Amino acid sequence: MVPLPIVVDADVLHRNVDYCVRKGWTPSLLDGASMNYSLMTGVVLFATARVQAEVEAQLGEIAARRDVPHGDVVRVWNEVFLPRVRFVEISEHDLEDARIEQVRALHEADAPTAALAVTLAPCVVLTDNRKHLAPLGIRDAHTDRIALDAHELSHYYAGANAMALVPTITGTMAIEGSKKIISTIGREGAVLIALILIGAAVVLWRSEPGGRLRESARKLAREVGPPLAEAATRALVLTDQMSALAIEPPPPPDSALRLIAKILATRQTGLTTAEVSRRLREHGYRFADAGSHATQTRRWLLQEGCFVERQRGRWTLGYHADPL
To answer: Which residue range(s) make up the domain with 228?
Structure first.
């Protein structure tokens, strides 16, 4: 299951900020969203920089309507929304797609959101203005229903990723620990110790205490297996439901911009310049100007506003905005 990116417009964010201020708790859509440039929950929210500016300009209006201090609304925006929404600098002119031009003809302010949606398609677009974004082929489903499904799906992804994180960390610790052992006692000594430990583990597993351990493992599998299978089945259903709501990607030929943006949105949230260069070469993208491919790749990444260099030579799609 590959998580689908979710593109939100200004009206949806505005409504959710208002809801958070009014009710005092985090909306479902935001509660299930991944933070810190991660895919941890499988739900990743994207919006354009124009949407960010539009919502921030309306925070005062929300404060006045709810009769609360402006600083309280700003705090909600800073603490709940900014860590969970990735903002992307993009223009309707960055991609060629007839749907973007059709949206611009209906409502120019929504053209960047259409461009972002086409860049990340297949993706889910959450908007309260379906008529403005109708050329994208948005399915008729209430945004709150989609938000609840995304929130439920995030629990499965978060649990699955948390389970995978333990062996990953353990493996990393084992690798780092083995390096220290080898540097201290030498490779031959480390191999001898490893063989002794393996033999001890086999003896333990076959012994009476090992029998109790095996029985405990079987009992755990019987108890945990069915709920895990049920959760996985439900996650597949939710994934299919959300996939059915996704807008279609543009027809071939694809673009280098979409290729790298999709990888950063759904598979790997950070890529080095060398990794981007390799991916471009693998898909047949070349630069006409002279110079090394890596140098030309970096120049291209700097020119494309949607890519942000968080650290020297390491790129993400969009940015988590600084607090107001």
So the answer is: 148-244
How far are the Cα atoms of 58, 70, 87, 251, 252 from residue 21, in angstroms, in the given order? Answer: 13, 11, 22, 42, 44
259 Cβ contact partners less than 8 Å away, ≥ 6 residues apart: 279, 280, 283, 285
Maximum separation of any 2 CA atoms in the chain, in Å: 76
Whether the CB-CB separation of 20 and 80 falls below 8 Å is answered with yes
AA letter at 172: T
C-alpha span between 203 and 210 (Å, rounded): 8
Separation of alpha carbons 98 and 113, rounded Å:
14
User: Alpha-carbon distance 102 to 80, whole Å?
Assistant: 33
Confirm whether 8 is domain-assigned: no
pTM: 0.79
Do 177 and 209 lie in one domain? The reply is yes
- Residue-wise pLDDT for 74-126, tens only, equals 999 999 999 999 999 998 888 889 999 999 999 999 999 999 999 999 999 99
Residues 154, 174: one domain?
Answer: yes
Same domain, 239 and 260: no
Mean pLDDT over each residue of the chain, to the nearest integer? 83
